[in-house]
Amino acid sequence: MPLLEVRDLRTYFRTAGQPRRVVDGISLSIDSGETLGLVGESGCGKSLTALSIMQLIPRPGYVAGGEILFKGRDVVRLPGPEKRSFRGRHIAMIFQEPMTCLNPVLSVRTQLLEAIRHGRPEGEARRWGGAGAEEIEKAVEALRLTDMPEPAQKLSQYPHQLSGGMRQRVMIAMALACRPELLIADEPTTALDVTVEARILDLLRDLQKRLGTAILFITHDLAVVSEMAHRVAVMYAGKIVEMATAEALFARPSHPYTERLLRCRPSRVQRGRRLETIQGVVPDPRDFAPGCRFSDRCPNASASCRDVEPALGQIEPGHVVACHLYAERRTPTISAPSPLPQESAAAPLPQGGPLLYAQDVAKHFPIRRGVFKRVVGHVKAVDGVDVAIPRGTTLALVGESGCGKTTLGKTLIRLLPPTGGVIGFGGANLAALDSRALRRFRRDAQIVFQDPFSSLNPRMTVEAIVEEGMLVHGIGGSRAERRERVKHVLESVGLTADALVCYPHEFSGGQRQRIGIARALAVEPKFLVLDEPTSALDVSIQAQILNLLRRLQGEGRERLTYLFITHDLGIVEYLADEVAVMYLGRIVERSPTEGLFDELLHPYTRALLSAIPGQEMPGRGGRIRLEGDVPSPSNPPPGCHFHLRCPSVMPVCREVYPPVTDLGRGRMVRCHLYGSRGG
Amino acid sequence: MIAYLIRRMLYAVPIVFGIVLITFVLFFVVNSPADMAKMTLGKKATPAAVAAWVRAHGYDQPPFLNLKEEGVAKLTSTLFFQKCARLLVFDLGRSDVTDRDIGQEIRRRMGPSLAIALPTFLLGMAINITMALIISFCRGTYLDRWGTVMCVLLMSISGLFYIIGGQFLFAKWLHLFPISGFDWGAVSAKFVFLPVVIGVISGIGGGVRYYRTIMLEEIEKDYVRTARAKGLGEGTVLFRHVLKNAMIPILTNAVMAIPFLFMGSLLMESFFSIPGLGSMTMTAINAQDFAVIRSMNYIGAILYIVGLLMTDLSYTLVDPRITLGASDTRSLYGRPGWRDVLKILGGFLFLAAGAVGIWQAAVYFKDQPGLRTVIFSNGVLAATLLGSGAFLLHARRSQLWRNAWRQVCRSRLAKVSLAALGAFVLIAVADSVTWRDVQRPAGTAENGNGPTRAVLAEPQSLLDRLCTPLAAKTEKTYSAPMARALLAKETLEDEVDGKVVRRRDYPPLKYPGWHLFGTDKTGQDVLFMTLKSVRTGLVVGGLTTLIAVPFAIFFGVLAGFFGGWVDDLVQYIYSTLSSIPWILLVVCFMMVFGRGLPQLCVVMGLTGWVGLCRVLRGETLKLREKEYVQAALALGVSRFRVLARHVVPNLMHLVLITVVLNFSGLVLAEAVLSYIGVGVGPDTFSWGTMINQARGELGRDPVVWWNLAAAFVAMFTLVLPANLFVDALRDALDPALRVRGEGE
Ligand SMILES: Nc1ncnc2c1ncn2[C@@H]1O[C@H](COP(=O)(O)OP(=O)(O)OP(=O)(O)O)[C@@H](O)[C@H]1O
Ligand code: SF4
Ligand code: SF4
Ligand SMILES: [Mg+2]
What we know:
Helix content of chain B: 55-70%
Bound molecules: adenosine-5'-triphosphate, iron/sulfur cluster, magnesium ion
CATH superfamily of the largest domain in chain A: P-loop containing nucleotide triphosphate hydrolases
CATH architecture of the largest domain in chain B: Orthogonal Bundle
Oligomer: heterodimer
Number of helices of chain B: 29
Number of strands of chain A: 24
CATH topology of the largest domain in chain A: Rossmann fold
Largest sheet of chain B: 2 strands, antiparallel
CATH class of the largest domain in chain B: Mainly Alpha
Number of strands of chain B: 6
Largest sheet of chain A: 8 strands, mixed
Strand content of chain A: 15-25%
Largest interface: A-B, 91 and 60 residues
């Protein structure tokens, strides 16, 4: 008997009209000690499946049918109090946002003890009172299990005093405190940095080995799931469309959706080509078409697909697919992935001086304290950075969160006044610009933000949003002329003229990001700062946006120049001409994209790359797991900023900040390892 | 921490000084000592008597600098030093009227005040929080729905009603408690009981609703889901996880209130004859005792500052995230330059000119004989209607407002409320459209003495004309609703068999059965009075909001957006203004400028912008970090345009909600103020004056209850729809803003 068996689970949301069928007939099973990965685009019902198993469905949702059998007992029909004692003790859950999922005003100790006490036999668990030494010991033990540094000391701290990775460890410690048989992890690493993510994933795997816990691992990241899961279930619009072992699924993706999803991922191989995309969006759970829910996005759809809903059928042992293509157990006839045209080899890079040029740029934020709010120190978010971006090229900026990427991007376009250094744009010194020239510069340099939800004013129509910059800069004379131009810009980002009168909340995340790009393009800039423009989006939509950006760079009179801030190396490989790796306010390595992946130089770059899930390690050296967190930018360690975490640290590193070593072929690195090599 | 305390103390110094200065300006610059003397001695006092009074109370010194004296005395024997600066060291001086030492008096009266206020406060908190917890525990059930409706009902009832009704019920009818008075010792409990119970009940509606909102907000948070996933019971989740987080906003309210407990409650104490500070203030108001009012002002301000400090300290107890002292101010937009200063100043002057304009118009028309407040409120109404019209035009074009409107229309309750509000507005408009009838047209006088000017009648409003059948039907004195006979016995003469028989009996009314709500002491129809009072209520609510809202938006948005010194300045202004207990500020203002509708609106507007301003400042702080604001700046849009296009429109929903809420609060406040005797004058129709006149008559037998009841019911039927409408509006505006991912 499997540990957990879900049979035909349906979870609906009550609405005025038709209920929203968010989970619509899901069946799956998990054995002890197994990891089942559940993947799918956002909005397809993954989290709600998990919450249904926990019996924590938010109102006005309800289980409309089906069974959730845990060791043969139906969780849905348990009486209330038993349901409650079931949670935590037999099934535990960790959530996506470690920032908000811990209670901010209760100490780690209190929150851990709650979980520990809950696990004890009835009656005893009721005791409130102070914590005995034995309980404290247990709490420390629980934290130690998660490799938390100094666990005893952490007990008396509060969540805000811990970093994101540590908070997620506390969550895991709490979840595992009662040794549950099943752990549900709902995007446990999505909010974390790659380096931290890698450590948390290692930890989960390791704990599973030691404790034999079964894990239901929910994520939208195919790479993560390929590393973690034994078996994978792919969800689409409330249904499971394919389920197989991880190897089988990644080797022979059979459902058209899975197959497309895998091909959306940008990588080195696709460089210079258009990325595969999936047209359209996930349908609204209120009005599903009668047939296959993927039919209006599926390239293989036939007439019967629109009328008859395909059932899950086995195509090889342990590999089930819900698609009519396999109805007669035909061998898969998915139209062979027609190789997308290799677009005309990129035009030769225009020569000439760099468009944007920055030397020794710094941005320090003052920290004020005391009676008179004296400045007692500075957060050195950007601390002496040199950049030069040639016209028409893309510089990718990568680094852990908090290393100053965004700040650098904003400083370069004067959205933040720099504390020091020189920034030149198109030959002019930005600091010397008067207000008119500055306004002119604003037209040339634009920015696209990460969060498509907060970057559009909810109370302005799309037309007003896109038009705003044109008004300021007097582009397009009459109203009608402007409207034409707005339409044109919207078309160039793939939106129709219908969008003009709509408001942002009527669009999906990907469409909003297009509007954001359209707003920037409307003033015909030469330079775009792209601050993680796709990290909030699903892979299929990410592919659309990347295609768009690539196309925009290729066309037009003057090729656009990008500063692309990202932490996704797939994107870097796909799109960037040059890569700069940032650590604690400084650029530690810079290299043309090709060279970088052939030979990784800086230990930090190596560690960063090896943390990325699903990535085979190119170059030398195996996996490197970084210990500790990024030090505070207000008080960077002396010597090489990286020496506290560096696996190849040398005595000199603790004392002297490494100088720039130019290795030729456009490569530059700041590390004592290469001090002698260069010139 | 220590550094923080020191900083707060240092901040307090300019605030305290500002308060002393405001008091000084109000009492000695705007209002000379001679004016004060005349106020106490009466208008007809001889100059000699006035001079004697001024000398006797030590008001004969020069304001700031006494050139007659030597050395330090040059500064010390001045009005400012003697009467105001000495407040700083708590030397409160002597009462102008009774000549008692104010400091001693305050110490003596603090006890009784606390005996009432403290139990009210503690009991109220306990009951409100428990009820809110229960309601939020049962969220989504009928208990929740009806609980909320009950709260709105309770909130919409005037505080005066609770007091008068409670006194009547418990003391007069049931004879459970003494109706008023106070004594120490074992008997004190029996005096304290009634005021405390009434105080608690009158606070339940607002309190429970406020706490419920806070708790519901917390219940939605992610950590609650975590706690449930751990398998904790609902009780633990609610009491340990939710309540502790909800403590922060609760403390903001509660701790702030503690220092003011010492001040006592004006209303409670005067109704229940408690010899506390509240009744002392009331007596001082009635006796025009400036020295006492000055002192109470000052003490109130000090207590406010203490309250702020205590609030901050209490935060650190419940919220580990807050560490006092550390602050990193993030200002993305740089400090405003001199050009911005000019623009800000220009904007401010514009606002100020607007306010002064309204004020001047009010004064001008007030001095026009026969016009009085009539035309004045016409102008205001016109402005209000124009403003609403402009807003509606804007809203019609905006998808979001249209959606909100559709949402509002979906709720029947909201539609009914809106209709009720509309009816009130119609009455007020009808009462403001005024013209004068020509009694005798211009022409040649009969005796041929040349042309004469037309004689005009008293101005009459449309409402007056519509209600003539009611207004004209006056009786001699009281009569019950729908009664056929007068309430006062008279000697009647009947002719029986040709003989005149005299008997004492209730005479029949002139218009029996005509008076739906009865008549008052002077025989006026109560229904007519109630209708006439609608305008005062709406003008107080409307005009005050009209004055307050532009200020609030202007200052709040600037402070939040620019930060830096602009923020410091705005915060200083509103800290100073709000540190004076508003009722005292109103009292001072009315003493100095006289009683009247425009004065009332202006002073309430001056203090009323503070709350909204604070909200808007906080919201702007959040908005300015939004990426769309940065995107606009990156496009080269100027900062003031960013404010106008991106910040202010995103605040309008808050403004709208606050406006309606303020409005209903003001309607209730007007009644209280008029009742205390600092609102509109007794010759203006208002619910407050109606209550004031009627209250004395509760002691009669049979009880005259109808004019009281009419005023309370009218207020209730105005405030209830307003509150209900706000609820619907809030719901309608909320989901449009919150953009949620589809329910994954
Ligand atoms: N206005 C500010 N005032 C003070 N400190 C700031 C400010 N803005 C950013 N910082 C700090 O500067 C550092 C760098 O921040 P930045 O946002 O540039 O990082 P990032 O690399 O873009 O991170 P992420 O990947 O999370 O977006 C952080 O420590 C941040 O807390
Ligand atoms: S059933 Fe048809 S539409 Fe659905 S995935 Fe298969 S081929 Fe595509
Ligand atoms: S300088 Fe030293 S510590 Fe820094 S990265 Fe190189 S080897 Fe590591
Ligand atoms: Mg960033």
